[in-house]
Write a structure and sequence with these properties.
Radius of gyration: 24 Å
Helix content: 55-70%
Shape: globular
Length: 568
């Protein structure tokens, strides 16, 4: 029987990373709950085995329930009835299966009914579910919004809402509006305090809200009258049980049809303040978005995997000119690049998730006791790494998902343009990944400061200091040559005026990300050559060409010609 976890040993490999011991130690507080909860691990090995069991259960559900339902969900989609969103009928089967399996409240403490799993495991689960149906992954993975409530809400709110998510209720983050997409400072949904009923009231419209008719919403709203920027925005919790929010419209989208994208009308809806006023955008949404961006990276890796699976299976079966097309150089070139991007992107995803796990666990411990000076330094280090790696993981994987889905159709040839083949749905689903939760261009904006301040280069040099297997050393030498070109390109960028700086930033972003992924993949191939050696060779060769091209472009760029790049 198929299993989307055990069928891909590359996923399980990433549970063996040395940082996992520190992550489990912090997440489990040295196993203090082993006598209190039956599912709490007694030691590190027990924790890893528990993660594997949950991944195995999820892989089974993904392969044998969610994936078989995906075509019917894509065709039916959600619909609107009397101001309420109704999922596609098979989506309810998916929800029922994941609830019965206990796959909710993934990251939450056990005292709230959660599984207390680290982010890296949650990312693995997200990848697996996305490979089965990226639209359903949206619905399921939005449970991670509860992390923001856990982090910034009060204890009463935690006790009230978190157990509901652990029992399978759904969430959404209601941020964007008709006039406030990427520019969230323009949010105008009004929040006013109701003195008589001692609660907040929300009025206005939200648009492009994923899973917008969910049970519990986190809502960005303007609480400070007379303000027009981010300093007047606060975060609120809306409970669907209280009423006051209707679905006005469900968008008809190119892909991810199972994921309802809603326009909502708030009419005097009762809400609770989450955290403090004025920090909604400045602090809380930033935390929320970083988590969401890692979720899209995982979603992207899932589609990268499935696009590769479909293309490889078709190439092995399809014969032309008397032989299987998988043996044709033009086809196996595409397949090898698809696999290399998948392996490199997955390695970046899980490294980022590990960095998030360590600093988030230390932040959580800091709510219980004072951190030692060493722990504070550790938290600072991994927070900085997580912040710098997240825009790379989201941006590059969302682009790779689109590229793999595109190449997957190319491998299918004319059949790839026929709706009966899954590859066309993967292509449609993938297109949104590089748009929502911050476009790739916005990921470049988030990353470019780490390019110019030298943090990425410092990280790369730390990675270069690590040893690799003898078989990987020639590849590492080629990466070292790329780093020299990156350093020169960074110096050019830093000397540019602002327009030229912004114009060239994407090229530096691509160079940086692909060099980092090359080094991650070399490390993976050193440990498990049977899984990653081929991809390491293909990927470094591919990246070498890309880095040389971007270096040449940056080196020869003439800022005086910049206005001429825009054709009126």
């Amino acid at each position: 029987m198929a299993n989307y976890y055990t069928d891909h040993p590359e996923i399980g490999f990433h549970l063996n990373h040395p940082l996992m011991k520190r992550i489990v130690e912090l997440k489990e507080r040295n196993y203090v709950e082993k006598d209190q909860y039956a599912d709490a691990p007694v030691n590190y090995d027990d924790a890893i085995e528990n993660y594997k069991r949950i991944l195995d259960i999820t892989g089974d559900i993904a392969a044998n329930i969610i994936a078989p339902n995906s075509e019917a969900v894509d065709i039916e989609g959600p619909h609107l009835e009397n101001g309420r969103m109704i999922y596609a009928s098979k989506t309810y089967e998916n929800l029922d299966a994941t609830r019965k399996a206990g796959l909710w409240g993934i990251s939450m403490p056990r005292r709230f009914g959660g599984l207390n799993l680290p982010n890296v495991t949650f990312s693995m689960l997200s990848e697996i579910i996305s490979a089965a149906d990226a639209g359903f992954q949206n619905i399921w993975s939005l449970q991670s919004c509860i992390d923001t409530l856990y982090e910034f809400g009060n204890e009463e709110q935690r006790e009230k809402f978190i157990p509901r998510i652990s029992n399978g209720e759904t969430m959404s983050m209601d941020l964007t509006e008709p006039d406030a997409g990427s520019d969230l400072q323009r949010v105008m949904l009004k929040a006013s305090f109701d003195e008589e009923n001692n609660c907040w009231r929300l009025n206005g419209v939200k648009r492009f809200i994923t899973n917008g008719d969910s049970d519990i919403h986190l809502v960005l709203a303007r609480s400070e009258e007379g303000t027009k920027d981010g300093r007047g925005l606060s975060m609120f919790i809306y409970d669907k049980r209280d009423g006051g929010v209707d679905v006005r419209h469900i968008e008809h989208k190119l892909g991810i049809h199972g994921s309802p994208t809603c326009e909502l009308t708030y009419k005097n809806a009762k809400a609770e303040l989450c955290g403090s006023t004025r920090l909604g955008l400045i602090k809380y949404v930033m935390a929320l978005m970083n988590g969401a961006r890692l979720g899209i990276a995982a979603q992207s890796v899932g589609v990268e995997q499935e696009a590769y699976n479909e293309a490889l299976a078709y190439a092995k079966e399809r014969a032309q000119f008397g032989k299987k097309i998988v043996t044709m150089p033009a086809v196996y070139d595409m397949l090898s690049r698809m696999k290399a991007k998948l392996d490199a992107g997955r390695s970046l995803l899980y490294m980022t998730a590990r960095y998030v796990d360590i600093y988030k666990a230390l932040e959580d411990i800091a709510r219980e006791r004072t951190l030692t000076p060493e722990e504070r330094q550790e938290m600072k280090k991994y927070s900085r790494l997580a912040d710098s790696f997240t825009p790379l993981a989201k941006g590059m994987n969302s682009e790779y998902a689109n590229q793999n889905a595109y190449d997957g159709i190319s491998v299918h040839g004319g059949s790839g343009f026929i709706m009966e083949y899954k590859c066309q749905r993967l292509y449609r689903d993938a297109r949104i990944f590089s748009i929502y939760e911050g476009t790739t261009q916005l990921q470049v904006v988030a990353a470019v400061r780490y390019i110019t301040n030298g943090q990425y280069l410092a990280t790369i040099k730390d990675m270069l200091a690590q040893d690799v297997a003898d078989e990987m050393k020639p590849l590492k030498a080629r990466v070292e040559a790329m780093v020299e070109k990156l350093e020169e390109a960074v110096a050019i960028l830093k000397a540019c005026d602002i327009d030229s700086h912004d114009f060239l930033a994407r090229r530096l972003y691509d160079m940086t990300a692909e060099i980092i992924m090359s080094l991650l993949l070399l490390d993976d191939a050193s440990q498990a050559p049977e899984l990653f050696a081929k991809s390491a060779n293909v990927y470094v060769t591919m990246v070498e060409a890309n880095v040389n091209a971007n270096y040449t472009y940056v080196k020869n760029f003439n800022p005086e010609l910049l206005p001429n790049f825009v054709q009126e």
